Amino acid sequence: MPIPSPTLYPPFNVIRLSHVEFGVTNLAASRAFYVDTLGLQVTDENDEAIYLRALEERGHHCLILRKASSSLIKALSFKVFDDAQLDLAETWFRDRGHAVDWVERPYQGRTLATVDCFGTPIEFYFKMDRLAPIHQKYALYHGVKPLRIDHFNCFSPDVDKAVAFYGELGFRVTEYTEDEESGRLWAAWTHRKGGVHDMAFTNGTGPRLHHTAFWVPTPLNIIDLLDLMATTGYVANIERGPGRHGISNAFFLYILDPDGHRIEIYCSDYQTVDPDLEPIRWDLKDPQRQTLWGAPAPRSWFENGSVFEGVEPYASGLKASPIIAP
Amino acid sequence: MPIPSPTLYPPFNVIRLSHVEFGVTNLAASRAFYVDTLGLQVTDENDEAIYLRALEERGHHCLILRKASSSLIKALSFKVFDDAQLDLAETWFRDRGHAVDWVERPYQGRTLATVDCFGTPIEFYFKMDRLAPIHQKYALYHGVKPLRIDHFNCFSPDVDKAVAFYGELGFRVTEYTEDEESGRLWAAWTHRKGGVHDMAFTNGTGPRLHHTAFWVPTPLNIIDLLDLMATTGYVANIERGPGRHGISNAFFLYILDPDGHRIEIYCSDYQTVDPDLEPIRWDLKDPQRQTLWGAPAPRSWFENGSVFEGVEPYASGLKASPIIAP
Amino acid sequence: MPIPSPTLYPPFNVIRLSHVEFGVTNLAASRAFYVDTLGLQVTDENDEAIYLRALEERGHHCLILRKASSSLIKALSFKVFDDAQLDLAETWFRDRGHAVDWVERPYQGRTLATVDCFGTPIEFYFKMDRLAPIHQKYALYHGVKPLRIDHFNCFSPDVDKAVAFYGELGFRVTEYTEDEESGRLWAAWTHRKGGVHDMAFTNGTGPRLHHTAFWVPTPLNIIDLLDLMATTGYVANIERGPGRHGISNAFFLYILDPDGHRIEIYCSDYQTVDPDLEPIRWDLKDPQRQTLWGAPAPRSWFENGSVFEGVEPYASGLKASPIIAP
Amino acid sequence: MPIPSPTLYPPFNVIRLSHVEFGVTNLAASRAFYVDTLGLQVTDENDEAIYLRALEERGHHCLILRKASSSLIKALSFKVFDDAQLDLAETWFRDRGHAVDWVERPYQGRTLATVDCFGTPIEFYFKMDRLAPIHQKYALYHGVKPLRIDHFNCFSPDVDKAVAFYGELGFRVTEYTEDEESGRLWAAWTHRKGGVHDMAFTNGTGPRLHHTAFWVPTPLNIIDLLDLMATTGYVANIERGPGRHGISNAFFLYILDPDGHRIEIYCSDYQTVDPDLEPIRWDLKDPQRQTLWGAPAPRSWFENGSVFEGVEPYASGLKASPIIAP
User: Fold this and answer.
1) Are C242 and D242 inside 8 Å of each other by CB?
2) Which end of chain A, C or N, has fewer beta carbons within 10 A?
């Protein structure tokens, strides 16, 4: 498969994934999960929405929980280098026939709303209210002590297409799984900010959001969270892990929020800033790519995802089978 | 069920579990597993046997690997308080009709060989060669950095009987699983040395050795071992974990040696020296007793065990079913 | 120096150190320190006193904070094996001319108050209210997540005398520092419960309490506490550490409570149940006995201690000098 | 002080610090330190030099040890985005009157050698031999398990000048210490790759290299190294730590190699990719900027550094005094 070359001059400069807005059916239940259990910090809240940041972040929000009549995802958001990039982005999307819109978002400056190659709602902004640092206010740390949002992972009906599209925007592939027979991509991890990924794509009915990941420093944070969830009524929300992915080398845990949105807690990936970093190829049949230690993932992990508001997912044409726990 | 009361004056004073001798079919393969991978220290070796100790131990051996034509366990061994206890033990076992024998064991003083209430071969000694401390020779630490042998867990065809027998010898129950309908014990954890167990008993065809456990200080030791085993040809030897037991609160990993002998690596249990420590009761139907975080154990974990040399196991009459992974 | 031999039959059977009562001048300030910062759990409190336990303890209290007009220690308390041991203890102390008294202590059964060979107030009891386990109530864990009280360390004007006295009661020496010239003990660590110590003695003006220690599972607990104290107004209460003692191999931190009572947070010691465990001898001139990594302790650590109520400390005759930070 | 604004278009694009070449007087002693103790991996070695990489690096070397008649630093090296950047760099330095030279470096492509504003020898390259990933070859991990080179810290006679010079090249200030009276910079941390620093500058006689840092994932790696060094003859090579810097929030340890070159082992910094990341200002008089937990640094840490080959350091005009341990 053709992996896009890195470019110093993408059409507009995306710095990193930034935040996501979840539609949730019960704000109080979501607050108990994200604030009391995970330990995200509330930066604003009202009857309609809760704004959250992780402990080393200075931007106003990395996660917005908004009251909704059903579980859904509003949009995936990205920060660009400066204000000028937003106009470059508008032109680029418009030229390709993607609908574009300038939208108002609280605590943000100009925000461009558009869609990716599958209709996934995505937004770009440069300015967001900056808050005082809290990473050394250790009295605030609790739960899993999340330091920052790390990446999105999306079910994609055509991973080759996703990689080509985001590749044009400067997202570099760090690791990928290839279906040996068809030569098509099964999954790919792409980054902007110098880690293993800002955006990953997994073959499946999509576009849907597979998970949103938060970064923690050590596996002990994850073990603490497991102990806490297991003894505070969240044992059924533990879906998969703890374990280590072969891909990305991440020590991981997958949990489900009260609306079924999947969250990954994650540490141990590596630095990827070298423009000549060689993508690592994994065979779809290698069980250690999923879990280095051998345990397969449950079926739910391959099938369930969050829909984007107003976007109808469609099935992938690629039917190769991953290894699933019986 | 009647849990034996603690006694200050057992018929003879057992200090702790001490060591075990495994019959192994390939000494080199076992050495690669226990020495190169787990990090146990060789204290003596020849063509027939390898003697090992863990890093904070000063006794000559906690594990003996002996060349054998098939996978088996020779005996479980216990250290007593002083030489006089051995004579008390001899009398006690002889009075109850158990065969007793004084046997020669390298690096040990007088050693009494006998059997427990199921015919399990057990041995008692007081003196063993004492070696210089190595717990501060940090250059020796590698693998999982095992600090000491912690406990034996045996499949028992009658756990009530096991608890009564070992209870007479002063082994105190710390936690147990009861079958609600029959009121019979499904499993029990009993100790002498002040931790959750020296000897545990699990309902099943027995007597067989379910596992031998080594103590490590933190979950990170276990994660390091998983990474090492997963990338040095031992991924299929990882049977269960990592996870946290509800019972004992231990963070655990179960692995299989080249002969199928099961080893637990383990941390996070608690101190149990209070004579009025209340045993904790678990319901057989509570899945969190097995794994606090919810994941069930694989079938192999409930079924496979190591036989004792020359001892025919027999089925348990108790047929209640634990929760098993599909 | 003559290290007492272990005995299976001490005059009465002490299980372990149990608890201590601190006189404190400001209950609210002490509560902020011990409850909000260290994470001990309140089991009772009123205008005069706060009762605390650590997270794996089931006895009602390991630390009592009692309002007092000056900083002092009321008594060091020990748990015995059963009620009968209390009468044996009474006889033993009376026979040796130590004042004995049966005192009322809330939440405890019969309690014997007496003094040791230096006049240190010590108390013995068997029964204390037992509380439900909380070690798996992970939502309660915060601060340094203390699991249990571990030991007392006392300034002693005559360490040889201390070791002889407590040795008669079955306290076994695990490690000691000897002054090479005089052949006298500089410091000794003695245990009942199977760790490196329940009671340690350090040469100095005494009797005074040098510190009370709490056990935590990993160095990361200690690092978390340092970060918390450093950013919540307690930076000046950090006296020494983190570091690793040569003696006991403990990873340590010494902090001072608002009244100057010294607390050690501690992990990584080893199991000492073998009756033939060889005490480890350290030379007073070996700087690594204090801190394996080389950093000397501050002068305050060698000089400051808490006085026992109504007990006048006196100077030690032994004048050897330890290594002190400039 | 004027902190340079971030720019999307620096005159040439530097990706990150890359490697350093140390002149060492005894290759075998240096090998014992860096390979056997720290755990760096040898990628090539001969009688004159040893090439090393850390465990997640795929470039051929991050540290070169070269036999020399005295302890010195050959050059600090940086990787640029592509080959074209080298020509841009040549022009930029030549235009400013800095000597430039194209030099041959084993395992590297075209390499530009020049000097910075103080005469510090610096080199730029794009291509370096890429080696197969070893980050999942866990059998190779030992010592402190270093994952990657993280930053250089230089003594600078004029920190304002250093920040201005490197700022033109796109190095962004993340944190800085200002002398309140003079308004001049005492120290500054600047980055290219998205962490707290690639290059830091500390006021002092310079240019000299203060230290080279390696990144590890957790404080336990550092504690393991302390235990190892303390028991393998390197206790005197431990200069400062462990501790947490206020600045950068890093958990740190400073050690000295056999030639006195200072190495920092380091974890816990944070992501800095946002172009609008606000630099954090520290007051020179705030002792927590050096060590969050309060312990001052030893005098040697403020005074000793490694000279660059053929470069005469000169004194700084700024005479403010940091807090030094007595």
Assistant:
1) yes
2) C
- pLDDT per residue as tens digits for the range D291-306: 999 988 999 999 999 9
Mean pLDDT across C63-67: 98
Instruction: Give the mutation candidate from A223, A224, A300 for the B interface (greatest B CB count, under 10 A).
Output: A223
Please say if the pLDDT value at position C190 is more than 70: yes
pLDDT digits (tens, 9 = 90+) for D14-55: 999 999 999 999 999 999 999 999 999 999 999 999 999 999
Q: pTM value?
A: 0.97
Residue numbers of chain B with a pLDDT score lower than 70:
1-2, 320-322, 325-326
Contact B275 C81 (CB under 8 A): yes
Q: Which domains does chain B have, with CATH numbers?
A: 14-130 (3.10.180.10), 147-307 (3.10.180.10)
The pLDDT value recorded for residue A298 is 94
Give the residue-averaged pLDDT of D217-231. 98
Q: Is the pLDDT of residue D6 over 70?
A: yes
- D288 in C contact zone (CB under 8 Å): yes
Longest dimension (CA), chain D: 54
Q: How far is CA C221 from CA A253, B145, C142, in A?
A: 22, 20, 10
- CB-side exposure of D253: number of CA atoms within 13 Å? 29
B47 CB-contact burial (10 Å; exposed 0-12 / middle 13-18 / buried 19+) = exposed
Helix (H, G, I), strand (E, B) or coil at D320: coil
Cβ contact (<8 Å) for A220 and C220?
Answer: yes
Q: What is the number of other CB atoms lying within 10 angstroms of the CB of residue D316?
A: 19
Select from D201, D209, D240 the least CA-distant residue to D318: D201
- pLDDT one-digit tens code per residue, C89-111: 999 999 999 999 999 999 999 99
Residues in B touching C278 (Cβ below 8 Å): 58, 130
Average pLDDT over residues D212-233: 98
Provide CB contacts within 8 A for B262, sequence distance 6+.
B209, B210, B211, B212, B239, B254, B255, B256, B304, B305, B306
Which of C130, C275, C292 comes nearest B82 by C-beta?
A: C275
Residues ≥6 apart with Cβ < 8 Å to B212: B20, B63, B149, B151, B152, B153, B261, B262, B263, B264
Please state, in angstroms and rounded to a whole number, the distance separating the CA atoms of residues B76 and B81: 17
Q: CA-CA distance, A125 to B20, in Å (whole number)?
A: 65
* Residue ranges of chain A whose pLDDT lies below 70: 1-2, 320-322, 325-326
Q: Chain D contact for A223, CB < 8 A?
A: no
CB atoms within 10 A of CB B308: 25
- Residue C321's pLDDT band, with cuts at 50, 70 and 90, is low
Angstrom distance (rounded) from CA B280 to CA C132: 10
* Exposure b/e, C231-241, CB count within 10 A at least 16 = b: beebbebbbbb
> Residue C5 — pLDDT band, cuts 50, 70, 90?
confident
Chains interfacing with C (3 or more CB pairs < 8 Å): A, B, D
Burial (CB < 10 A; 0-12, 13-18, 19+), residue B239, is buried
Smallest Cα distance from D263 to chain A, Å: 20
Q: Is C317 on the interface with B (CB under 8 A)?
A: no
Q: Which two tokens stand for residue D208?
A: 């000299």
Contacts by D233-238 with C-beta closer than 8 Å and gap 24+? Answer: D234/D33, D234/D37, D235/C288, D235/C292, D235/C293, D235/C294, D236/C294, D237/D33, D238/C293, D238/C294, D238/C295
The ipTM assigned to this model is 0.96
Q: What per-residue confidence (pLDDT) applies to B321?
A: 62
Q: How far is D230 from chain C (nearest CA, A)?
A: 5
Q: Is D129 helix (H, G, I), strand (E, B) or coil?
A: coil
Number of residue pairs across A and C with CB atoms under 8 Å? 30
